[in-house]
UniProtKB/TrEMBL annotation:
PANTHER family in alphabetical order: PHOSPHOENOLPYRUVATE CARBOXYKINASE (ATP), PHOSPHOENOLPYRUVATE CARBOXYKINASE ATP
Alphabetized UniProt keyword annotations: ATP-binding, Cytoplasm, Decarboxylase, Gluconeogenesis, Kinase, Lyase, Manganese, Metal-binding, Nucleotide-binding, Pyruvate, Transferase
Lineage per the UniProt record: Bacteria, Pseudomonadati, Bacteroidota, Flavobacteriia, Flavobacteriales
Protein name (Swiss-Prot/TrEMBL): Phosphoenolpyruvate carboxykinase (ATP)
Annotated metabolic or biological route of this protein: Carbohydrate biosynthesis; gluconeogenesis
List of residues binding Mn(2+): 201, 221, 258
EC class name: lyase
Length: 538
């Protein structure tokens, strides 16, 4: 009998400087799951998923993300606190240390690719110290067929060695962990951290440079899905604002939950082949599709389980950022391949912890550009020591940590594409209602879904003064009614029952917008500036 899973191809890593390694090439998800457990690096949950702990790091470490400053990047990258320069010779030396470290070890290698649209495909070879990191690469990147593997030419290489610790004095890093992109060598080098998100966001950052610079395509930190009539919707938002949750919708085919490109051919394609969902407080009732995706093949990260292996979703004792990765085919209703047409609606998701932004509002083109550059969400008290009030957090393009170019580059491209396509843009507050964090409550997911569905199904009234109210502080148009949502929920001021406190807080937020925008003022056109709040505190 023919064994279809048996691989005949083997890979030598000497060319990478990794000597005498015991190479495990292209192992199946099942094999990696089994090996992880055998090595004591993970256990199976009661639903069959693999559960691992990522170690010291349970989130990305933006201060340890570097880009090698070379001929390709030096005049193009927006250098600063987000894109921290790294010396090319230092990179070479550190790379050699990492590959020495991996030499003589068992090493897991996987060929995969990013970008579901063939015109943009980027072949990637992933080299991992741990089997579960390699399984993460299987889940998150696109999977070549057996046929494609026969003559696979990798373009980029990811080397991930969580057990390798850098020596900052010698290696030029900030501390023992690092994630470094080298655009000349086409390598993402990761060490000292086992957080799997570094692997996917490394390639995302690389594409956020490559696509706009060389391919005239706009990369976006957004999720995307398609309705029955073929209408594409995309959802931008910072971490925790609802990209994964809201794009996973039984009635709409999922294109992807996090990273997409909008092409000059007027298509939207997924960079990835899987999803990476937050599972804090996940419930089967509220998020049935994601809940069902947590089965054999999925990898749970940093969750706590009871002695039966049932995940305790409310338990944040390891981290608030508990996660699950799964290949996109764990979701039933998906688009194949992961490509849609020009979006008809764009949603900007924000988790406003001040509770002052309307739960949904329509933006003019100026406001859309302004809010895209601003990238507002809020950090809530409790997660960082000393934070007692909600803190506004601004991240340009709703994804500044992953954007190597100046934010206005992406904003200009988006404005251009929005104009050409005549897309509608909506600002959705998935954060607080009835008062700020600590007083009010998080917007009910049921209501947010109803508002989004009303937009997508054309059930919100025509864009007129009878149907919309212009917010006196933010200038955005908030609908007066929406099927499935009580009218008072649509007006944040009403939910506060205290006009004075509401306006005081709203003005506090509008001032924060103004403060943040100063950095972009000189690059922004009059049209973009007009999109900001209409009133500020004295
Ligand atoms: P990341 O970029 O880190 O992947 P994300 O934008 O995909 O973040 P989600 O994983 O969708 O964020 O997280 C949103 C979280 O907020 C989920 O845990 C979800 O259950 C919760 N939530 C609560 N209320 C709402 C709401 N009204 N709308 C959206 N999400 C909500
Ligand atoms: Mn997500």
């Amino acid at each position: 009998m023919v064994n279809h899973t048996q691989k005949t191809k083997t890979i030598a890593l000497e060319a990478y400087g990794i000597k005498n390694a015991k190479v495990k090439y292209q192992l199946s998800s099942d094999e990696l799951h089994r090996l992880t457990i055998e090595k004591g690096q993970g256990v199976a949950s009661s639903s069959g998923a693999l559960a691992v702990n990522t170690g010291e790091f349970t989130g990305r470490s933006p201060q340890d993300r570097f880009i090698v400053k070379d001929d390709i990047t030096k005049d193009r990258v927006w250098w600063g606190k987000i894109n921290i320069p790294f010396d090319s010779d230092k990179f070479e030396a550190l790379y050699n240390k990492v590959t020495d470290y991996l030499s003589n070890k068992e090493v897991f290698v996987r060929d995969s690719y990013a970008c579901a649209d063939d015109n943009y495909r980027l072949n990637i070879r992933v080299i991992n110290e741990y089997p579960w990191s390699n399984m993460f690469a299987y889940n998150m990147f696109l999977r070549p067929t057996e046929e494609e593997l026969k003559d696979f030419t990798p373009e980029w290489t990811i080397v991930s060695a969580p057990g390798f610790m850098a020596d900052p004095e010698v290696d030029g890093t900030r501390q023992h962990n690092f994630a470094i992109l080298d655009f000349t060598r086409k390598i993402a080098l990761i060490g000292g951290t086992g957080y799997t998100g570094e692997i996917k966001k490394g390639i995302f950052s690389a594409l956020n440079f490559i696509l706009p610079v060389f391919k005239n395509t706009l990369p976006m930190h957004c999720s995307a899905n398609v309705g029955k009539d073929g209408d594409t919707a995309i959802f931008f938002g910072l971490s925790g604002t609802g990209k994964t949750t809201l794009s996973t919708d039984a009635d709409r085919s999922l294109i992807g939950d996090d990273e997409h490109g909008w092409t000059k051919e007027n298509t939207v394609f997924n960079f990835e082949g899987g999803c990476y969902a937050k599972v804090i407080n996940l419930s089967q009732e509220q998020e049935p599709e994601i809940y069902a995706a947590i089965k054999k093949g999925a990898i749970l990260e940093n969750v706590v389980m009871n002695d039966k292996g049932d995940v305790q979703f409310e338990d944040t004792s390891i981290t608030q950022n508990t996660r699950v990765s799964y290949p996109i085919y764990h979701i039933e209703n998906i688009r194949k391949p992961s490509i849609g047409g020009n979006p008809k609606n764009i949603f900007f998701l924000t988790a406003d912890a001040f509770g002052v932004l309307p739960p949904i509002s329509k933006l003019t083109p100026s406001q859309a550009a302004y809010h895209f550059i601003s990238g507002y969400t809020a950090k809530v008290a409790g997660t960082e020591a000393g934070v007692v009030e909600p803190m506004p957090s601004f991240s340009a393009c709703f994804g500044a940590p992953f954007m190597p170019l100046h934010p206005t580059k992406y904003a200009d491209m988006l404005s251009q594409k929005m104009k050409e396509s005549g897309v509608n843009v909506w600002l959705v507050n998935t954060g607080w209602t009835g008062g700020p964090y600590g007083v009010g409550t998080r917007m009910k997911l049921k209501y947010t879904r109803a508002m989004i569905n009303a937009v997508l199904n054309g059930d919100l009234g025509a864009y007129t003064y009878e149907n919309y109210h212009i917010h006196s502080v933010f200038g955005v148009a908030q609908p007066r009614s929406c099927p499935g949502v009580p009218n008072e929920v649509l007006s944040p001021r009403t939910t506060w029952n205290n006009d004075e406190a509401y306006y005081r807080t709203a003005l506090k937020l509008s001032n924060a917008f103004r403060e943040n925008f100063k950095e972009f003022e000189e690059h922004a056109t009059e049209e973009i500036r007009r999109g900001g709040p209409q009133r500020y505190a004295l």
